[in-house]
Structure formats: C-alpha cells, structure tokens
Design goal:
This protein has about 220 residues and is mainly beta. The chain has a single domain, classed as Exo-inulinase, domain 1 (Jelly Rolls). It contains 2 helices and 16 strands. Strands 1, 2, 4, 5, 7, 12, 13, 14 and 16 form a 9-stranded mixed beta sheet that branches. It has a 7-stranded antiparallel beta sheet with strand order 3-6-15-8-9-10-11. β12 (about 160-170) and β13 (about 170-175) form a beta hairpin.
C-alpha cells in the first residue's frame, strides 16, 4: 500500500490528504507497468517503461480527479535507465505533465534527464532540464528552433530523489529543483496558452524506471 503518498490541495494554502492511490486505481497511458514500491525510505509509485509506442505523452499516470489551471505542483521524483533493454540514449527521463487533455494528447510538462546532471560532456549537462508542450512542441522542435531557451543545467544523479516544484500562472511557468530559491527553468510563453486547464500526470520517457512520491497540487 502507498501510505499517504499523494496529497491534494484545495484552494490556496488548504491541504487535505487524498485517498491512498493503489496502482490498480490510477489511469495509465502507454505501455508501462505501475507498482507500489519504496526507494531510500520513501513510499513511492514505481513506473516502468515496457517499450513502444514512444512519444511525448505516451507514458503517463494520470492523477484521478485533477483539474489544474494555475497553481503549484510538487513531487519527489527519481529516474534511471532500465537495467535491461534501455538504449544508449536512455537518460532516466522523469517528470510531470499538467493541463493535460482528457485524451492525454495535449498538455504542458517539465522533465529531467538524470544521467545528464553529472556527465563529463558539458553539452549533455546543459540538457538536464526540459520543458515540452504536447503534441506540437516536443523537445526536438524546441531545441532545433530555439536552442537553449527551454532547457537548462541542474545537478542530479540517476536513481536519486529530486524535488520538483512547478509554479504556473497564465502562460508562464517556473520549475524549481530541490530547495533552490531560484528556478532551474523559466518558461514565459507556455505553448498551450494562458487559459488551458486539465489533469496532472506523472510522466516518464523511453527506457526509464521511475519513482514518484509526495505529490502535492495547489490550485488557484
């Protein structure tokens, strides 16, 4: 069982514990396995990529009952390449989607590439943190058309917990990592616009085994 892994926040500053989320109660999108687990003393939801189809929103665990526009989302995440079957390009991709449509095809997201955090290649380090907007703005297009604007560096290690906090207001979003008072990534033009609303979801990329814990959602 997951013991109070998730919390929903109703209104600014009002925190209420949500029902426990067992793996068989969440809605998954894509070819993934979901299980209760623990990592470094934290109760967690373990999400494992099982293979194709790959895609920006193909690997999701949608949080039931969420309807998010503006506010804050916080969670502890840990991602690492799968021990078997992961390609050389696997980075342990793990993150959060928000303002997600009912069909899971459109939404905004931030994710991290943990193996890039301490790579010996500086260019890889510069790609440790990423913003995407599905389906029209995957990382490939953003990097090609606006190099460095929607990704940045942050220190992290694969398989270790990283605290993510996303602050959203209108068409602007900030991603904070750990206890840093300044954001690791700033987006001033969310591609979905200022008025989009939708669900919150846990997100993983190809070749990843991820853990999620302590999800909190504050809505305005």
């Amino acid at each position: 069982m997951l013991r109070t892994m998730m919390a929903a926040v109703l209104g600014l500053g009002l925190v209420a514990a949500a029902p426990q989320l067992a793996p068989d109660r969440v809605r998954t999108v894509g070819n993934i396995a979901v299980a209760a687990a623990a990592l470094d003393g934290r109760d967690a939801l373990k999400v494992t990529d099982l293979g194709p189809p790959f895609g920006q929103t193909d690997k999701l665990v949608v949080i039931p009952g969420t309807d998010f526009g503006d506010g804050e989302i916080e969670a502890w995440v840990a991602g690492a390449p799968a021990a078997e079957g992961a390609s050389a390009g696997a980075r342990g991709f793990v993150g959060l989607m928000f303002r997600l449509s009912a069909d899971g095809r459109t939404g905004e997201g931030f994710y991290i590439r943990p193996t890039n955090g301490r790579a010996e290649d500086q260019e890889r380090r510069n790609h440790a943190v990423q913003y995407i907007s599905a389906p029209d703005w995957p990382w490939e297009r953003l990097r090609r058309e606006t190099p460095s604007r929607y990704e940045s560096y942050a220190d992290m290690e694969p398989g270790h917990w990283v605290r993510m906090r996303i602050v959203v207001k209108g068409d602007k979003a900030r991603l904070f990592l750990g206890d840093a008072p300044q954001p690791a990534l700033i987006v001033n033009d969310l591609k979905g616009g200022a008025d989009r609303r939708g669900a919150v979801a846990l997100w993983i990329g190809p070749g990843t085994v991820a853990h999620f814990s302590g999800l909190t959602i504050r809505t305005e």
